[in-house]
Specification:
Aminopeptidase, eight-stranded mixed sheet
């Protein structure tokens, strides 16, 4: 008799749970990475990705090395994957990291999931990794994401002018940061 083990939830606020990516998540990552409108808004792969590439990426741990972190976000109630979050370029000496996140499907936007994902990741990086500052990049035209980031206390620290080419034009990329620990 075979038993199916549920993935271990690492973080949860009761609505959104975060866990390591599992092979069964491959279809969600593949669909997102091949939704070219969505990935261009989060500055992702612009030409699509083969399903095999996603499967190999998950099997290898999502390219996570050292203190980097990659998590699949799921609904706590039923375990349905809804997005992902990553922390990268984690610098324990300077106590700083970069984060990125995305929902897998636009139909889940506007429900507060992005806010919940980012809050949990920032809290984890502060409480368990000991970081004091979190930064991210976002397209200046991504009003929905900017609204979430500003509401969570992220402030603009820089602008990369005409940095990212998407939808036939160059767009500015904003660098936003937030102190989550003992501040400056």
């Amino acid at each position: 008799m075979s038993t199916v083990t549920k993935p271990v939830v690492l973080l949860s606020d009761g609505v959104v749970a975060l866990r390591r990516p599992e092979p069964a998540d491959g279809d969600y990552y593949w669909a997102m990475r091949n939704n070219l409108a969505l990935v261009s808004s989060v500055m992702g792969f612009r030409l699509g990705v083969a399903e095999r590439t996603i499967d190999e990426w998950i099997a290898s741990g999502g390219g996570v090395t050292g203190d980097d972190l990659l998590l699949t976000a799921t609904l706590a109630a039923d375990g349905r994957p809804i997005g992902y979050a990553k922390a990268f370029r984690v610098d324990r000496f300077s106590r700083h990291a970069w984060v990125g996140l995305s929902l897998f499907d636009e139909r889940d936007a506007g429900k507060g999931y992005g806010t919940r994902i980012l809050t949990q990741v920032c809290d984890y990086l502060r409480d368990y990794v000991g970081l004091r500052k979190i930064s991210l990049e976002v397209l200046a035209s991504n009003a929905r994401a900017l609204s979430v980031y500003h509401r969570l206390g992220f402030v603009e620290e820089g602008r990369l002018v005409s940095q990212y080419f998407t939808a036939g034009r160059f767009e500015d990329v904003l660098i936003l940061s937030r102190f989550v620990g003992d501040g400056r």
